[in-house]
Amino acid sequence: MHTVLVTGAAGGIGSRLRKLMKGQYPSIRWSDLKIPVDLAPDETFVKADLSVVHEVEQIVQGVQGIVHLGGFSVEGAWETILNANIIGCYNLFEAARRAKVERIVFASSNHAVGFYPRQRKIGTDSPVRPDSRYGVSKAFGEALGALYAYKHGLRVTCLRIGNVAETPVDKRRLSLWISPEDLLQLIRIGLEHPNIRHEIFFGASDNVRSFWDNEAAFRYGYRPTGRAEDHAAAALAANAKLAPDPVSDWYQGGPFCSDEFDGGIERSPT
Ligand SMILES: NC(=O)c1ccc[n+]([C@@H]2O[C@H](COP(=O)([O-])OP(=O)(O)OC[C@H]3O[C@@H](n4cnc5c(N)ncnc54)[C@H](O)[C@@H]3O)[C@@H](O)[C@H]2O)c1
Asked: By CB distance 3.0 to 4.6 Å, which of 30, 130, 131, 159 could disulfide with 136?
């Protein structure tokens, strides 16, 4: 893996990775719609809009691996999700195929499966249950990854990221928090492990309250070092200040589930 492209370089995760990935690959190309405010002179940055085909074609040239973080990272209007996450993701995979890129690590999300109840532990083989248009776009990205892996031979790793932060900030995040260092560990498995074809891993640290069985990631050697429970007291104290929300509190996807919800919780699946 000589040259790695990382999209979404100006975002929250991209900004953290720009520090953590320094020196880990011979060449890293960072890209985003926006120029990162703290771009260092020794960083290579190429501005590109993922929804514009020829701009995406330029950024993938000469790279062997891509970490695809770029996109709209919360719920949004259909047009916004369509352009950034659906058309943008398609452009990225298709340009990568044509440029003979070997591997893609796709930043999927827990919101692809947000409508599972918190009391239920799921694996990556559970069918998707998106909790938002955003979650649907992540399920789309995972499916696109499978198409490009099985039909075109790319090696694709989809990370259903929980919440990347220094510490978990509330009760829900005690279950789905991931430290930036553990996220990088998963990204490196996606970029380097010889047996990857199309894999879905949960992006979570070593959390005793996890909603997820991350066996697939462990089989590839993932050994998380972050432990959400070490921060439980502070997270639960912060949680006590939140207003109760029966839909959000019931489902793994939290507020993404209660947003626009009019389904009747008594009729919702368990
Ligand atoms: N932060 C988390 O905890 C978390 C959890 C689950 C999934 N994710 C996913 O991980 C990725 C990164 O998350 P983040 O928190 O850094 O998000 P972010 O919103 O901070 O960053 C996303 C970046 O993508 C860029 N972008 C948006 N539309 C674009 C376009 N059309 N062309 C090029 N760039 C575009 C934005 O400019 C932004 O810098 C996202 O795909 C997000 O959905 C993040």
From this structure: 130
Name the token pair of 73.
Answer: 């990272």
Distance CA 138, CA 160 (A): 9
> Cα separation of 23 and 12, whole Å?
20
pLDDT digits (tens, 9 = 90+) for 94-137: 999 999 999 999 999 999 999 999 999 999 999 999 999 999 99
Q: Are 70 and 50 in contact (CB under 8 A)?
A: yes
Closest residue (by CA) to atom 12 of ligand 1? 69
Q: Exposed (0-12), middle (13-18) or buried (19+): which is 3, by Cβ within 10 Å?
A: middle
Cα 202 versus chain centre, distance: 9
* Residue whose CA lies nearest to ligand 1 atom number 29: 71
Tokens of 221: 């050697």
